[in-house]
Automatic annotation (TrEMBL):
<dbReference type="InterPro" id="IPR006083">
    <property type="entry name" value="PRK/URK"/>
</dbReference>
<dbReference type="GO" id="GO:0005524">
    <property type="term" value="F:ATP binding"/>
</dbReference>
<feature type="domain" description="Phosphoribulokinase/uridine kinase">
    <location>
        <begin position="2"/>
        <end position="75"/>
    </location>
</feature>
<dbReference type="GO" id="GO:0016301">
    <property type="term" value="F:kinase activity"/>
</dbReference>
<dbReference type="InterPro" id="IPR027417">
    <property type="entry name" value="P-loop_NTPase"/>
</dbReference>
<dbReference type="Pfam" id="PF00485">
    <property type="entry name" value="PRK"/>
</dbReference>
<protein>
    <recommendedName>
        <fullName>Phosphoribulokinase/uridine kinase domain-containing protein</fullName>
    </recommendedName>
</protein>
Length: 168
C-alpha cells in the first residue's frame, strides 16, 4: 500500500506518518516512511524569493526521483508512507498512491506552530506568510482527487478513523 500524507508546514504530517508506521509494524507489516524534503534539489537550483531560498516552491522538489523511489519501495515494503507539503502537486506521482491523507489546520494554528519552530532560526513575517500562500497555491489537493481523506491536525489524530479508512 502506498500512502501519501500532505498538508502545510507544522500540520502534523510527520507525526501522523510515525503513528502509522508504528501501527503497521506492530501488526507485522514491513513499513517505511520517506519525506518529500529528502528530494529537494541542491540549493543552487532552487528558486529565490527576496534573496531567500524558496523551499516552499514545487520547483524545489525532484519529482522524478520521488516517483522512482515510490516505485522501488512499493516492491520492497508492504506499506510505504510518503509525506510532504507537495504530496499532491505532481499528478503522475499522486496517481501512484493507493490512499491519500490530507492534514488540515487553520491559518491561526499554522502561525502559532510556525512561531514556535526555531529549527531554522529567525524567519521574517513576510516569509511565514509566503509559506502559507505557497501551500494554498501548490499544496492543497485538487477537487478532482479521488480516494482522499481530510483529517484535522488541530488536535490529536483520530487514529481509529484513519485506520478504518486505510483498511477499506
Amino acid at each position: 500500500m502506498l500512502i501519501a500524507i500532505g498538508g502545510v508546514s507544522r500540520s502534523g504530517k510527520s507525526t501522523l506518518a510515525n503513528l502509522l508506521v508504528t501501527y503497521f509494524r506492530k501488526n507485522g507489516k514491513k513499513a517505511i516512511i520517506f519525506h518529500q524534503d529528502d528530494f529537494v534539489y541542491p540549493e543552487t537550483q532552487i528558486p529565490k524569493i527576496k534573496n531567500r531560498t524558496d523551499w516552499e516552491s514545487p520547483h524545489s522538489i525532484d519529482f522524478e526521483l520521488f516517483k522512482e523511489v515510490l516505485i522501488l519501495f512499493r516492491e520492497k515494503f508492504d506499506v510505504v508512507i510518503a509525506e510532504g507539503l507537495f504530496a499532491f502537486y505532481d499528478e503522475s506521482a499522486t496517481g501512484l498512491f493507493d490512499k491519500k491523507l490530507f492534514v488540515k489546520i487553520s491559518k491561526r494554528t499554522f502561525l502559532i506552530r510556525k512561531s514556535m519552530d526555531t529549527r531554522w532560526g529567525y524567519e521574517p513575517t513576510w516569509f511565514i506568510d509566503h509559506i502559507w500562500h505557497s501551500f494554498q497555491k501548490y499544496g492543497r489537493p485538487s477537487a478532482e482527487l479521488k480516494n482522499i481523506m481530510t483529517i484535522s491536525g488541530e488536535d490529536e489524530f483520530d487514529m481509529e478513523k484513519v485506520i478504518k479508512y486505510l483498511d477499506k
